[in-house]
Amino acid sequence: MIAARALAVAAALTVPGVERARADVAVPVRAHALSDRGRDLHHRGDYRAAISAYQEAYAIAPSPGLLFNMGQAYRLLGDCPHATSYYRQFLASSGDPEARELARHQLIALGPCRIDVAMTGGDADAAAPGSGKRNLGIALALGGVLVLAGSATFALDANSAAEQVSSAYAHGAAWSTIAPLQARGERSSARALGLGLTGGAVVASGAVLYWLGRRDARRAPRALALVPGAHGARVTLTWSF
Predict the structure, then answer these.
(1) 27: three-class secondary structure by DSSP
(2) Which percentage of the chain shows pLDDT scores above 90?
(3) What is the DSSP letter of 221?
(4) pTM above 0.90, yes or no
(5) Domain count of the chain?
(6) What does the pLDDT look like over 109-118, one tens digit per residue?
(7) Are the C-beta atoms of residues 123 and 185 closer than 8 Å to each other?
(8) Which residue segment(s) compose the domain that 194 sits in?
(9) Which of 95, 126, 157 is the last residue in one of the domains?
(10) What integer pLDDT is reported at residue 112 of this predicted model?
């Protein structure tokens, strides 16, 4: 319990040694400003905006501290894969010993995350196993339903034309009156059949793709990640140039 509290206190501190470590490096003013803005947004809980500022600062003046900051922000967003990747990049670089120890603890807490997303700012859900097949399957199924709706419309028209033909025969109407009704009914019937077969095939294909996507998701390795909840204690450590 004492060790956990000590870690929490250390995580809430800003490491002043970063200034000294970079005293011999000419850091652009904009990088300073972006780093400070990121830290301010971070402390206010706007982690996505903080990450954006950190990334801009890192593009101008790469710093191990910024890697750590991004890991912290992603962790507090609940994005385990990105947090894990940035913590590992930080540990692979030189950095403050206290922060390195905290990064190791955070990696242990996050668990064996799978890195499903390249570090391009993409959404992790988009790369979920089987998601592409499931999404395509849903789209096909919806399209097939629309085609079947068109088939039903033509089927109703064919039935209406048939009833009109029967009524015309019953009242002794001339063939010149009956023929167009019969032709309309035959056209609508043929279209209803064609669209029905097409729509059914599309819906079936969508269902198969969705099933395959679900199967891929079930077969994918599971990852366990322990991430602080929205109402839990937030342990943060941020760096500055």
Answers:
(1) coil
(2) 28
(3) P
(4) no
(5) 2
(6) 877 654 443 3
(7) no
(8) 131-219
(9) 126
(10) 60
